[in-house]
Structures are given as structure tokens and as C-alpha cells.
TrEMBL record:
GO CC, alphabetical: side of membrane
PANTHER family xrefs: GLYCOSYL HYDROLASE-RELATED, PUTATIVE (AFU_ORTHOLOGUE AFUA_5G02280)-RELATED
Membrane topology term: Lipid-anchor; GPI-anchor
Keyword field: Glycoprotein, GPI-anchor, Lipoprotein, Membrane, Transmembrane, Transmembrane helix
Composition bias type Low complexity, residue spans: 342-364
GO biological process, one term: glucan catabolic process
UniProt name for this protein: GH16 domain-containing protein
InterPro entries: ConA-like_dom_sf (IPR013320), Glycosyl_Hydrlase_16 (IPR050546)
Region called Disordered, residue ranges: 1-54, 342-366
TM stretches of this protein: 73-92
Compartment(s) of residence: Cell envelope; Membrane
Amino acid sequence: MTSNHYSLSGDDLSRYPGATTTQLPKIDFDEPLHHAGPPPPPGTGEGPRRSNNAPVLEHRWYDPRGWSTRKRLLVAAGIAIVIIIAVVVGAVEGTKKSSSYPDYSRLNYELVDTYAGASFFDRFEYYSGVDPTDGFVQYVNKSTAQSLNLTYVTPDASSAVLRVDTADRNASHGRRSVRLESTTSYDTGLFVFDIRHSPYGCGLWPALWLTDTVNWPANGEIDVVETNNLATEGNAVTLHTDAGCNMKNVKRHQTGTANFVTCDNSTHSNAGCGVQGPPSTYGQELNENGGGVCGMPLPPLMLVPFLFVSNQQKQQVYALELRDAGIRTWFFPRAAIPADITSSTSSTSTNTSTNTSATPDPSTWGTPLADFPNTQCDIAAHFRNQSIIANIDLCGELGAQKQFYTDLYHCPGRCVDFVRSHPDNFTQAYWEFAGFWVFRAT
């Protein structure tokens, strides 16, 4: 509580409402003030006054008012030393944390799941609910997707394709598309994604990612491949979590460029902590460099033979390692795919089994595109029960953002209007996968 100090000026009675000068004690400022002492004995008119021989008040040992000048200087010096030590120790500990790095030593992996060939779509559920990210899209079920040719396996069973509808010229309730979610989920593993074509075009928001759709964001999200619209900026690998996971000032080994460093979904409008790759990691440039088809627009049913002829020898690989030490993602163009990936994921048109005697070894692959070490993020606690998801959204929270749709990619009009009425824009709006392979550490 703050104490108030007052001074009497003349006959100032403001602190005593209703009082008069004759009712207030008169203080003689010319008379030295004395300690009042105890109450006067009964029958006397005054209390005892301090004698000139009264003992001087002594201060306690811890009261600075009783210290000598030398003692005060020594104590001040001691405090200064303590502060300096605390600052130095804090700086050293901070430096240790920023320079620490997890143990990414070699793990022995074995193949546990293969998504390839004629049975590729059998391992996925078709999500057909309302888009949780506000896209102008109708995700269709399996029977509808098959009848509209939105998902199919190429005749030689070398590729699986999922694409956006290119027939409806008045998609007033959103354009039809596909979202696949694997029926198997994973806590850890090494995932190899062989991509022959990646979708791009105004209004698109495609992604290849992992998450627990029931317990998001508590169980985390890993966006292995995610872009929007024309995607000329390349791919961004991103993590989304709840509180307690960040990459701020941590040591990382990666070729990509870090974006936000806080993975918490409640910050930066759920931007997550991302790593941006170069243009060659996605879209038209990826497809032209061996990842898919580029050419004149084709009617929907012509895509099947065209893909079969042109893409069966094309290959781009993303590899994701999810382990307690951290999360790392590599991108390999066709000419640089490691031999242990090629040998451990090889398949033919009639046999989708892989060479189980060969196993991939990420410790030999060099610097990854993105590195998310566990220095300030408990990976095991933040990433669990991850299902593989592949989808092509339209507009939505990311695709329709003015900073991307209009300012960066100069797409025409409003995203919703464009998607509704321009089906011919979506001839490049398809994923083509040679397959996915999942390995587990033994």
C-alpha cells in the first residue's frame, strides 16, 4: 500500500472535514521534536523525554544503514560478480543449445508397406465430407471417382492417377476432386514417394502429407509436398503442431530455406514451421525435368494412354524420415535418385512386390532438403498416428489467398468464379504416383 504524506500550510483543514483551528493540535516547529515515548503515567501531564545519555539505536547486521563504506563496496562487488556469472552461464548454455544436434546415426530399415500397382487405391479411404479448409471443392467417394475417371491405375499398372474433374462447366457447388487417406497409420518410419507428375494451375491447392485427422494438431502434421496455384516458387515442407515445438536458433543441416520457425498452429495463422525448396522441387519445372507430362491440354479420357506412354520412365522421389531424433525430407530428381532407393522400391507392371533384400540408408544420402531436429521439439510426443494423405483442393484458405492467387501468380478474377466455370484450366491438375513405400526401423 502506498503511504500519503501531507504538509500543513497555514490553517489547511482539507484533511479534517468540519474541523476548526481550535480543535487541532498545535505543532511548534521551533521546538525540537522528541520521541513521544510510552503513555504518561496516570495523573501526570506529560510523558518522559529522551535523556541526552540514551543509547543510540543499533542496526541489525543485514541492514545496509549500519554498514561501513568498505562493507558496502564489498557487497556491491559480490553482487556484480554474481550477475556477470549468471549472464555468462546463460550465454554458454544458450550457445550449447544452439550448437547441439541430434544423433541421426544409421538405422536398419525393413519394408513394411507398399502402395503400388493395381492395388494402389485399395489401401486408401476416399474422404467425401465437407472440406475442413473451406475449399471450393466436392471430394467424391470411390464409386463416383471411378465412374468419373478421377482415380485410375494405368493399363500397365505402373502408375496411379488422381485428378480434378475437367468436364463440368458450371461447378456451382465446387469442382469435384479426390482426397485419399491411408487406412494404415504410423508413429515412425521411412517413407518413399515416387512422383511422376505434380498438379499445378490457377486455383489449385494440392498436397501430399501425413497427419492424424482425428487428433489434429495434438498428433501433428507433416506436409511433405504442398504448393498452390501455379507453384513456380517450388515445394514447401512444413510441420504443424500444438504448443511446445519450434526450430528457433537450433542447428540444422538442410539445403532449403527456413520460413517460420514456430510450429505451433496458433501462431502466424497456422503457417507452421516450413522449409522452402527451389522451383525444381515442384510443378511445371519438376514435371519437365522428368516428373511428368507437359504439353497441350487433353480431354479427360485421353489422359490414360498419354500418361501410360509418357510417364512410365519418369521419376522424382521425395523421402521422409520420421524418427525420435527428428524429421528429415529429401528430394531427388530422376538423375540423382540413390541406388538403394531404386533397388528397394523396384517393381514391374505385373509384380508389385519389392526387393526386400535391399534397404534404403538415409545416412548415405547427403544433406536433406528440410531438417527438423528434436532440439526444441519432442518429435515422439508431437507426431503420432500419421496417415498418408494425397489430395487436390481448390481455392480454400491457401489457394484463394490474395497474396498468392492475385499478387504472386496473377490468376484471373475471383478464385471461386474461375474454378466454377473454367474446367479446361485443370488438364494439369493431377497427381501421378509410381508408388509409396514405407520402411520401419528394426
